[in-house]
């Protein structure tokens, strides 16, 4: 039987952590949460992306490497299902958008070394939404370091995610990818929307477990 390892992904503000927490609570999965606010470079990054992108991305990469290492040793080894509110591939999405070419090439080499032999999710939940919806949700959660976020940057990021997830899906046909439109489904505030999303995910989980 395959042990489910779900990654919930999508652009900033789309509801990844909320959905991941609901999956963990309803299915008794171990929750792996992305470290965000602990990043000391993040507020500087949104003030000056060009100056602080490499430091920001390296901090995230090293922390995600440590989290995945712990998951490999302590949780998946004991056959415990996991849901994470990120997939490590997001590092390349952000780095490709923010780093100069020479920096990106160095970063990509480090990424490949650190992620080699790391556990990989076998179910992807991809959330997406319009810039308007994303900006509203970002404002509602009130993170101080996100107040200076450029809406154009968010739009570019959402487009990058869409392109990347399409490529990922083509390259990994054996990994189910569930897509949910955040403009049409407000699973944060509407119970019936959350129930619909969770029901859809449970059906895929059952299929993966039967492999």
From TrEMBL:
**InterPro entries documented for this protein:** DCK/DGK, Deoxyribonucleoside_kinase, DNK_dom, P-loop_NTPase
Q: Which GO molecular-function terms appear in the entry?
A: ATP binding; deoxyguanosine kinase activity
Q: Which residues bind ATP?
A: 10-18, 137-141, 185-187
Cellular compartments per GO CC: cytoplasm
Enzyme Commission number? 2.7.1.113
Q: Does the keyword Transmembrane apply?
A: no
**Pfam families reported in the protein's UniProt record:** dNK
Q: Does the keyword Nucleotide-binding apply?
A: yes
Q: Where is the active site?
A: 85 (proton acceptor)
Q: What's the domain of life for this entry?
A: Bacteria
Keywords for this protein: ATP-binding, Kinase, Nucleotide-binding, Transferase
* Major enzyme class: transferase
Domain Deoxynucleoside kinase, chain residue ranges per copy: 6-205
Annotated CDD domains: dNK
Question: Which family is this protein grouped under?
Answer: Belongs to the DCK/DGK family.
For this entry, the protein name equals Deoxyguanosine kinase
Q: Which organism is it from?
A: Sporosarcina pasteurii
